[in-house]
Design brief:
Length: 535
């Protein structure tokens, strides 16, 4: 593969614009794009848009025409082989196209949280900045070169990449911090990004990890394939498994050796957890549970090794009191089939069937009948994580819209010169910054509250924040489509990031609790806390 950040070919040749102009025929076709000179003579016949386009810019500076039809990564990948030198008088200052090195943060307004664009913040310190830069560099170099192509093909992230995510501390950074973090760093060769120590790792480091590992990548399906199921599937094992199970499985998963998912929803009940029909009965010898049933819409289930599964251990009409949580390992009787969803199959969304699957009783998480309580225990954190990814994805789309509105020429001037476009951009930027401010405030509160306090005081606010974030994302998708026009519904080319976003924006609005449930939960909690106040 040729990475978008691969070193460019050695270019010792320097050409004047007059020299380039002498190569303006089909037999010798040179063009200038930015500060580089390209020999497109052999390429013209293979140009997807036809040779006529290449011929029309022969011997000229084609920078504006190139960026009218192509994203910059084309220059850093396919076009790089045609570079023959640099132009003697390259564009300087604001006329020069900005390119970023691996790990470098964007300078486009609102493209990064304000604390990472030079503004003061009470929440972040130098360790957070090192942490983000190192994560950004990792994903730029190790993930993004292949991500778009793999997402388009529906290819799952490779086991080798998972192990690298483990070794580099990405996986450990995306799980609620606890003793398991120190364990894998001290005993399993895991190093946290940016040289962050385990004793300084906090909720803001985890927030950054979710932002960098999911929303910023611009490939929703592939990004979810990098651990959406793991983020919500491993915590119940770490928190409620036996010491042997939590340590063994925690090490396997956090190092990327094994993969895990959360299997709660079934076709018979969906998110109505109280009516889960998947059954687990003890064998006569009392050593195993025999599991039978199905689960649906299980993210990462296609390639998972472990399935944290909600089962009914009580009677058919026992409701939430008859639910338990089992750690089921892939083996005899457990089968997974991919489900086609509106985003990439790279996420590994699965239909999971259990046919007399034997599970050791030692794999029970917590106690029998505590399944509903255990599931609820992690919902706040799951919803907080979803907000982090959704809002960072929305921020990426704002960056795309700002770039496009400046470079797209309509009626003889940039798109951004149209007042209606500026109003759309203003709306989106203010909404995304509003979500970010509330997200960081709640993250600060989580950092200074016990889990019991969080459950009592933050369940409502986090639910409303998730509702806010997904409604904003819906607005971002809608307005971005209007700004990009037909390109926003085209899977390749200039609007491809917007196209992938608008096609998957409803995932955040449904997973982890629908918008309607989030709104109802938030206000019901508020009403319970209402004093006897009168107008």
């Amino acid at each position: 593969r040729l990475s978008p950040f691969s070193p460019e070919p050695a270019m010792s040749a320097v050409y004047t614009r007059e020299e380039v102009a002498r190569h303006a025929s089909d037999d010798s076709n040179w063009v200038i794009i930015d500060d580089k000179v390209y020999d497109l003579t052999r390429f013209a016949a293979f140009h997807p848009g036809g040779a006529a386009f290449i011929s029309s810019v022969a011997g000229r500076d084609a920078t504006d025409k190139f960026y009218a039809f192509h994203r910059g990564d084309v220059l850093r990948s396919m076009a790089s082989k045609y570079v023959i030198g640099v132009v003697a008088d390259p564009p300087l200052g604001k006329k020069a196209t900005v390119t970023l090195e691996p790990g470098e943060l964007s300078r486009v307004p609102y493209a990064e949280p304000s604390a990472f664009q030079g503004l003061p913040s009470p929440y972040y310190n130098d360790s957070h900045r090192r942490f983000r830069l190192d994560l950004r560099k990792f994903f730029d170099e190790e993930v993004m070169p292949d991500a778009v192509a793999l997402d388009a093909r529906g290819t799952h992230p490779s086991p080798e990449l998972w192990r690298l995510l483990g070794k580099r501390g990405v996986l450990a950074s995306r799980v609620q911090h606890g003793p398991w973090l120190k364990d894998v760093v001290e005993n399993c060769g895991v190093t946290l990004p940016g040289g962050v120590r385990t004793d300084e790792f906090d909720y803001f480091h985890e927030l950054i990890a979710h932002e960098e590992a999911s929303g910023r990548l611009g490939v929703p399906g592939y990004a979810d394939g990098l651990g959406a199921g793991f983020v919500i599937g491993l915590p119940p094992v770490l928190q409620f498994g036996s010491s042997e199970v939590s340590k063994r499985v925690g090490r396997e998963v956090l190092t990327g050796t094994k993969r895990i998912c959360l299997a709660i929803s079934g076709p018979e009940a969906g998110s109505d957890v109280a009516n889960v029909a998947c059954v687990a009965e003890k064998t006569r010898d009392g050593l195993f549970y025999k599991v039978n049933g199905v689960k649906k819409w299980i993210t990462n289930g296609v390639f998972a090794d472990y399935f944290v599964t909600a089962v009914r251990t009580g009677s058919p009409n026992s409701g939430i009191d008859g639910l338990s949580l089992l750690l089921v390992e892939r083996g005899n009787g457990l089968e997974t089939k991919p489900i086609k969803t509106s985003y990439s199959a790279s996420a590994g969304t699965a239909y999971v069937s259990y046919d007399d699957v034997l599970v050791p009783v030692s794999n029970l998480l917590g106690k029998e009948g505590e399944g509903f309580k255990l599931i609820m225990h992690n919902f706040n954190h799951e919803r907080w994580y979803i907000v982090a990814g959704v809002n960072r994805a929305s921020r990426l789309i704002i960056e795309e819209c700002l770039k496009w509105s400046k470079q797209r020429m309509v009626f003889g001037k940039p798109l951004a010169e149209q007042p209606v476009i500026r109003q759309k951009l203003a709306k989106l930027a203010s909404q995304v910054e509003g979500v970010q401010a509330w997200l960081e405030a709640i993250t600060f509160q989580m950092q200074h509250m016990s889990h019991v306090e969080q459950a009592a005081k933050l369940a409502g606010p986090i639910a409303l924040l998730k509702l806010f974030a997904t409604r904003v994302a819906n607005d971002v998708a809608d307005e971005a489509c209007q700004i990009f026009g037909g390109r926003a519904i085209t899977a390749t080319g200039m609007g491809q990031v917007v196209e992938r976003f608008q096609r998957s924006v409803k995932f955040g609005a449904i997973l982890g609790g629908s918008e309607e449930i989030m709104g109802d939960l938030g206000i019901r909690q508020a009403m319970r806390a209402m004093p006897n106040a009168k107008l």
